[in-house]
Amino acid sequence: MEIQTIKKLEKEALKKSGTDFTRLGFALFFMIGVLTFSFLNNGGISNNMFLAVAALIGAYMAMNIGANDVANNVGPAVGSKAMTMTMAIVIAAVFEAAGAIIAGGEVVKTIKKGIIDISAFGGNSDPFIWAMMAALLAAALWLNFATMMRAPVSTTHSIVGGVMGAGIAAAGFSIVSWSTMAKIAASWVISPILGGLIAAVFLFSIKKSIIFKEDKVEAAKKYVPLFVAMMSWAFVTYLTLKGLKKIWPQVVDILNFIPFVSIEMSKKPSLLTALLMGLTVALIVYFYMVKRLTSNKSKLENTRDSVNTLFTIPLIFSAALLSFAHGANDVANAIGPLAAINDAVLHGGISSKASIPLWVMGVGALGIALGLALYGPKLIKTVGSEITDLDQVRAFSIAMAASITVIIASQLGLPVSSTHIAIGGVFGVGFLREYLHLNETVNTIEEDQLIIADEKNNLQAYKAELKTLEAKEEKSSLEYERVVELYKLISEEEKLIKSTKKHIKRVQKVEFVKRDAVKKIIAAWLITVPAAATLSAILFFMIRGIML
Q: What Pfam families does UniProt report for this protein, alphabetically (predicted)?
């Protein structure tokens, strides 16, 4: 038996190592392909090898974004069984790449969030290029480490830390906009709390209006169309504000072709425009859902599982839309510094904004999709099932939190992280479950406490009687029998009190959120910026030492 077990373990180990080597092979093939293409495509310029290496690092960063950050968009849907892992990876990869290429924009800010002052480089492009390369590599290495540790972290914060560290190494602490950094640090608290609260509110609303009702079918017919319409409203608004802002002029041109529709040209969509577009879609979705649920084809059972199935398709749409918006926005984390390096190499100067060549955008889009396909499942499992158990209703609440929090925060000017919002939403639904469980068991705990009080009274009475009998010098045979009986009764009472106390502790200690996962993730969040900054500063000095 032991030999057979060892053989099985060896077989599994070989299978796992073979899979790991295959993944690594695909990743290296992509990065070497990007290096070769960049070198050949820019062969006529000086420093083309340096640009090719930067492209290689950009490809590595893009893959790490796909492996770590995209899990937040599809993790809850996979954990709730609304989608399979394969389906989630295909949908997310396609929509991430589409978001990056279609709505990623033609121009990107070279310094993410304006955290350092580029004038401190004095127009000298060499240290700027070294700083951007160090920032990109440091952020990618940190994301790679976080993914290995199964800790979902913010890619935006990673690149922010990288840029800050390299900037300080290149030009001192004065280069950093510390007020901007304070806002980013505040997002570590704002993002998860907002996400958690909104997710908990929606979950409680669904439970109160549908799940806790005796007639769940009738309640579902009444309220599910409303909740799905609200989700449609939130997501179209979110997508318009965050996913379409860079191609808004083209969107306006298309919409103006529609009869009776006229939208004034603006650089980006206003909140009112986005809300009106969302409301239009929401009304269509509402009436469609009402018609579907009231039709004879709708066969619902009076169970929670049956209600859960109604949220499956909305979750699939939410995963796709979140991925599109994420690709449109966070591709800049991979290609922003690369575009800055490309611009500096081509034009020999430093610019606050840089145009993005199509090949650079392609590196970001394909890298994110490939990183997700090769290494995304680890983090998808962590987000979807290793923090708290999720079903479709809970995952739906998390998706709602992700869209609504970004809308609120963007209008208030609060810096938030999509990663922190999504994970905060997972925490929120988990802790709400714990709270509701404790409320449900209040009566049980009170009953146990009454039992303990009664048994303690009995115990004291038995002990008092035993003390009286033992104080007698001469005892009758009946009294001796009573002493023996009292010892048995006291022992039984003590056992009963002890077991009842243990039951209370077990009820109170039920945890629907895995505390170890919470501690690990929060620790990773707190050290992301300083870790990336420190690593970036070290890499900057290494690159400068090599180049000088």
A: PHO4
Q: What is the distance between the alpha carbons of residues 404 and 202, in angstroms, rounded to a whole number? A: 11
Q: Are 282 and 141 in contact (CB under 8 A)?
A: no
Give the DSSP H/E element, type plus range, for residue 213.
none
Alpha-carbon span 241 to 384, nearest angstrom: 27
Q: In the chain, what are the domain boundaries? A: 19-440+511-547, 442-508
The CA distance from 229 to 520, in Å, is 36
Condensed to tens digits (0 to 9), the pLDDT of residues 215-258 reads 998 999 999 999 999 999 999 998 888 777 777 777 677 666 66
| Residue 143, token pair as written in the block | 């994301």
Integer Cα distance of 376 and 75 in angstroms: 10
3-state secondary structure of 281: helix
User: 169, 536 in Cβ contact below 8 A?
Assistant: yes
Q: Which run of H or E residues covers position 9?
A: helix 2-41
- Phi, psi of 107, rounded to the nearest 5 degrees: -130, 140
**Phi, psi (5° rounding) for residue 521?**
-70, -45
User: How many Å separate Cα 411 from the centre of its chain?
Assistant: 21
Give me the pLDDT at residue 13, please: 53
Neighbours of 449 (CB within 10 A): 13
Q: Strand, coil or helix: what is 108?
A: strand
φ, ψ at 354 (rounded to 5°)? -135, 140
In 3D space, the residue among 163, 146, 2, 135 whose CA is nearest the CA of residue 72 turns out to be 146
Rounded Cα distance, 24 and 29, in Å:
8
- For the chain, which ranges sit under pLDDT 50? 1
Residues in a beta bridge with 116 = 176
- Candidates 197, 528, 234; CA nearest to 410 is 234
Distance of alpha carbon 353 from alpha carbon 331, whole angstroms: 15
Structure pTM? 0.81
* Dist CA 418 CA 406 (whole Å): 8
3-state secondary structure 346-369: HHCCCCCEEECCHHHHHHHHHHHH
Close Cβ partners of 13 (under 8 Å, ≥ 6 residues apart): none
Name the DSSP class of 116.
B
- The CA distances from residue 219 to 276, 390, 473, in Å, are 28, 22, 74
Q: Phi then psi for 213, rounded to 5 degrees?
A: -80, 150
Predicted pLDDT of residue 482 = 83
